[in-house]
Structures are given as C-alpha cells and as structure tokens.
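Appendix B, Record 12. Input sequence as logged:
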Amino acid sequence: MGILDFLSKQFVDVIDWVEESGQLGWRVPLADREIQNGAQLTVREGQVAAFFNEGRIADMFGPGLYTLDTSTLPLLTAIMNWDKGFKSPFKSDVLFFSEKEQIGLKWGTAQPVTLRDPELGPLRVRAFGSYSFRIKDVAPFASRIMGTLGEVKVSDVEPQLRTAIQTALATGVAGGGTAFLDLAASQSALSDALKAAVAPAFAQWGLSVESFFVESLSLPEEVQKHLDKASSMRVLGDLDRYAKFQAAEAIETAAAQSGGVAGIGAGAAAGLAIGQAMSGALGGGTGSGTGAPSAPAEDPFALIERLHKLLEMGALTQAEFDAKKAELLGRIR
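Logged structural output:
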C-alpha cells in the first residue's frame, strides 16, 4: 500500500461541529475516511447528531460526549449485523442539526393582499412583521430540506417560509370576513391567528414557529386618505364646522405657496363652496345671521341624489342617509 492509499484510508477519531450563525444543518465531510471503532462524538447544547444508513436515520444523539461502539449505536449495529461487536472501522453518513431558535427574521407581503371588508368593500392590504423558528423534527427536515446537501442555512429556507406566511395571510385573513379596522386595532390577536395558520406549513419541513408578530398593517395611500377624511367628518359632526375647517386648511395651504396671500381668496372660496354644497344637500343651510334671504328651496329629488353621493363617499352613514331621505320625501306631499 502506497502512502497515498494510506492517507485516503485515514480514520476519524473525533466527530464534532462548531456551528456558525445561521447554520441549520451540516454533513460531516467524511469522503473516503472511515469512522474508527471507539471514536469520540461531541454534541453541543442546542445540537442533534444523526447517523444515517442508506438515507434513513439509524441513531440520534443529543448534547453530550459519546464513545462510538455497538452499545451507543444499537440501530446501526443491527443494520450492519454487528452481532459480536466490530473491530474494523465503518462508514456512515453523519449529520448535525441545530435546534436553536432562529430569531429576528422578517416577513412581508410582496404584493398587496385583497381583503373583502364587510364595511369598506374590497381593500388591498399590505402587512409586515417578524418571526422566529427552530428545527423541531429532524426526520422531515433531513429528507425534505437537507437531502444530499453539505449544509443548509437560514437564508436557504427563508424564501419558502415567507411564501408560506403570505399564503396564510391571503387565505386566513383575507377570507376571514373581519373588518380591516378591527384587524388593525388588535395586532396581537392577528399575530396569534397568523402564527396558528402558518404552523402547519412549517411543520411539514420539521420546523416550529416559535414567535410571530405583525408590526404593520396598511392600506394604499389613496384609500387611507379617504378614510381619514371620512373620520374627520364624523368627528366634527356639524357639516358647517367641517366646511370652516376645510376653508381654514385651504387658507393655510395658500399662504404657504408662492402666491402667498393672493392664493387665500381661491382657497377660501373653495372651502365655502364645499360648505354650501354639503349644507345645502343636507337641507341645513341657513343665513349667516346678517339677515340675508335664504336661497330658494331645491328639488327634494336633487337633494336626495346629492345625499346618496355623500353616502358613497363615506361622508354619511346609512342611518343618516335614510333619515334625511325620509324627511325630504315628506316635503313632497
């Protein structure tokens, strides 16, 4: 036997793994080397070592220091027919797995998810947050993720995990029938619901979801502006006061523009026009207190049409619309 033949047949006396951050699984690179009878196996805290025979797990070891012989490798001993012990070296695939919690991972919706809101109708919602996971069941992780790879890192499985999260969000939340405002008001409950929805997908790869948080839930900018305006109107209550509020905003905006005070007239006129249109539509317009004559009464049907537009905009509730409509129809007698 030449020196090169001897080196290719060198024996492995110590097996251990000093894992790096982000590593989930690592295959001991035995190549042509053989494991010596009586070799030492070191498994550190948060690790699991598994001996494989023809792609199937034979023996597994938790944290500790082991001497490899027939007593510590009972399943492999039975498979290899070592009924009277073994003296010569043997070959086996040895894989290490990290069971530590992988924390600080981010998820988000690559595309908005359509939510059928019972109050606002179809909405396109974006969501973002964080989560953590760990390897819980080595067998499915080894067969479905690790396979014949030399190592697997968190970055290798993250894209698949984020896809599973987005699918859970689309099916669990979008089809749940819960109003967006209720979802946004209880992000803790939403986080728990999504964690439960995501868990089965992670489990098929031998992973468990340790924590799951929804940090942000948002609507498209134009929809959010509409909701903000509708909220402002409901808070103010009095449409005359809302008109004054709009006029004041217009004045402030005009004053800040290059036209300065010259733009105030146009802004104030716009605010006044809004107030007159809304007050007239609700039939609540009165004189300014200077004794000016009231405007001629409008056609009730035209007023009802304006009210309906305000209802569609979200400026009026259904109850407010129905009450005012009944009042206007009563004038036709």
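The chain is about 45% helix and 25% strand.
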